[in-house]
Amino acid sequence: MKPSEGLAVRLTPLLVSVVTVLVYADTHALHPFLASYARALGSSVFMAGVIVAAYSVFEDLFEYAAGYLMDRTGRKRFFIFAGMLGDAVVMVLYGLVASPLQLLGVRLLHGLSGSVAGPGIMSLVAQIPHPLSRLGARMGLYGTSIILASIVGWVLGGLIAARYGYGVFFGTVSALLVLGALLTLAIREPEPLFPEAAQRASPRDALRRLRRLVANRGLRTACLGIFALMVTLGAMTALLPLRYQELGLSSFHVGMTLAAYGLAALVMQIPMGYFSERYGRLLTLGAGLAIVCGAMLLLSAVETFLSFVAVGVLYGAGYSFLFPTLTSMVVEESAPEERASASSLFHIMFTEGVVVGAFCSSWIAEQVGCGLGLRISAVAPFLFLVALLMRRRSRAGDA
Question: Using alpha carbons only, what angle is made at residue 361 by residues 348 and 299, rounded to the nearest 5 degrees?
Fold first, then answer.
């Protein structure tokens, strides 16, 4: 191996982490202002909500197909490169739209180009030579990169758009995505394990693989686990501002609580990945689910800013127990030649958990109040925890 090749291989884990931050930051950067941007274009409140949600819907529609094609070609890097260039073009289009329907069309294109990120990067992290030898630690680093992307995106969206306007914001994010796409060219991806597989790609084969993956009990556990976790995050995102409003607190306090959650998850995911390797996946899942349930119950009970920050840290700790463990399970329960397909199903459940949590908790809060809405969102992780305990008891009985 040439010295330059050896250096490229050693730098690949760092490059993948940087690319992860850039590829996820664009969607988070839109969160602070997308609804108001749609309203400024003349949309109704309902249409603004549809535009905000459209990205997740379109992304999920394309995600499994993207993962399947990555597995069949064995080329994750190419898809990530193309997806980031597509995102860069879409960012420019955001700044050119003149009506709500045009904005909805751009969201569709954004969902298409963004569908490669989750399955591509997650399967690549499991595949490349890595200084973190333990799978749980690798997945913790992947989760840390996503959390960092959220923070970077919120800062970009909040500061640049407010201070310099939408045009500068869209241009800046587009340039960062082009930079990320160029960085993917320096990633050294292992050669495909089954280069002849691309010749067998077909819709029928894709459906066969989907049925096989859905039948995998371990993969189902990981997908349902991330869905249960993200239901609570969706509820927190939707109801926390309203809960604070009831208590006379401001959007600044909401941001600080979410920042406390983000920083806790940022710091703790790699250590919790090691924890899951040492003490087992089920124990780590049980601990994380219990912490998340407790955090959601406390969010509906506390009434002071510092208490909310403390609960945000607690929620971040529970998230850190769960995310690296669940992503490790996806890798362990899928063969290398189907890992991107399995990762796509995981990310679909990740996204839909947020959507379902936000929608259901908002409807419940409208009927009975924000406090009860937050408490009821804890039902999803609680039911999943009960199912895990029953599964463990049945295993002990069989033994």
Answer: 105
